[in-house]
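Our preliminary data section would be incomplete without showing what the modeling component actually yields. Below, a chain of 277 amino acids is followed by its predicted structure, encoded as tokens that our downstream tools consume directly.
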Amino acid sequence: MSEQTAKREAINGVFSSQEMRKVGTGTTTRKSIQKTMWIAAELPDGQIEVQPLNLNYIPSGPKKVVSREDFLQGFSPEPEVYQSQVFPKMRELNKTIATAERHRKNKEYFSAEMEYNNVLHVDEENVRANFGLGITYLERGDNAKADDIFERLVKLDAAFEPEHKHLFNEFGINLRKSGMLDQAISYYSKAQELSGQDANLCYNMARVLYEKKELEKSLDFLIRSLELDPRLEVSVKFLLWLLNRKEVPEFYIPNVAAALQRVKDAQESGQAVPAPE
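Predicted structure:
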């Protein structure tokens, strides 16, 4: 970031854009101006991340990044909209989510369901509410409704962003524990597609594949998790458990031995965890 960029005020708030569109056909064709409201935030590199506001003035839908130059040419500030609409509605939405999460923590599942649905009525793509509702259904054993939420979540790229990692992991683990193994594999595969290799993600995939009795694939992911993080304790314990149960095929023993040696070397040297490739 240049010194000039560092000194100026960062772009942050509600903005609008306008687009000319044709409405109707033939002799009834007319031009119409469509106005879209956006929440905008400047990134460290100077580009601007924008996300549309839905009809309830809630940031919802896919985000996109535009250059600062294009943003200044195509977007107009709407500060009064943020103060009068977006801020109070986001505050109320977050209060409702907090209430829902409190009910879920207390195992008050039907109250949690009601509050999560109140959120989704105004923002159907709200990641926290979708995850929370899905986990609620899984915890109370309603797998059919949980499957509907799963289908919704795998279509939401935002669900796999780092800020939602805790909820993401909890939902995936609950899918596996509820016996929804195919859904769990699809879910973790989508996560790998969007966020790349991650040691915990590989471990979770290994657990699901083991329960599907796909041992070799499970071992592949387990070894990969230890390549990414040789100090991941859950992977080490799982691998040793498989060895003690004599479930590791003979031809796979050299790979396991190499992985355990890597673990030992990392523990003895205190080496940093390697970055995912």
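Residues 3-77 form one domain. The first strand starts at residue 12 and ends at 23. Preliminary results of this kind motivate Aim 1 of the renewal.
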